[in-house]
Design a protein that fits this description.
The chain is mainly α and 130 residues long. The chain has a single domain, classed as Cytochrome Bc1 Complex, Chain D, domain 2 (Orthogonal Bundle). Helix content is 47%, strand content 0%. The termini are far apart. The mean pLDDT is 91. Bound molecules: heme C (HEC).
Amino acid sequence: MKARGLMLAGAIAFSAAACVQAAPNVQHGEQVYVRCMACHALAYNRVGPHHCGLFGRLAGSVPGFDYSLAMKKSKIVWNEKTLDLFLKNPQKMVPGTAMTYAGVPDPTDRADLIAYLKQATNPDSPQCRK
Ligand code: HEC
């Protein structure tokens, strides 16, 4: 009886965790992106390069943006996985990067932010369409 209860609790905990992973909160991600807007915009370069078209883009490849050598040489292609690693700790993933930002330590904040970025940086999104 006790074991069954434990198994049930485990199953509930598992499905709750799976649910959190399956459904990132894009609206919350947009709020997290406000931190990035100190230096970035979606559609144009500022202190940092523009983010439209980010997914599938080679790091350091926006024409006319003055990247660090570290970023240009990194050979990273931006996707959910590489963004998660970079945004967790930019200097750790790209030592010498000019992005002087500590990163987004909270995994849920990062997942929501990346889900927002995936929608907002799509070349067909309202912010990126020309
Ligand atoms: C203090 C200014 C600053 C902040 C804040 C900042 N960035 Fe950056 N970001 C930069 C700079 C500068 C670069 C170029 C880095 C280089 O050349 O090494 C960059 C580069 C990047 C790149 C690589 C882009 C490419 O074209 O290869 C990504 C992705 C990125 N930033 C995402 C973010 C996100 C998401 C946030 C918010 C969580 C953020 N940045 C916050 C300044 C900033």
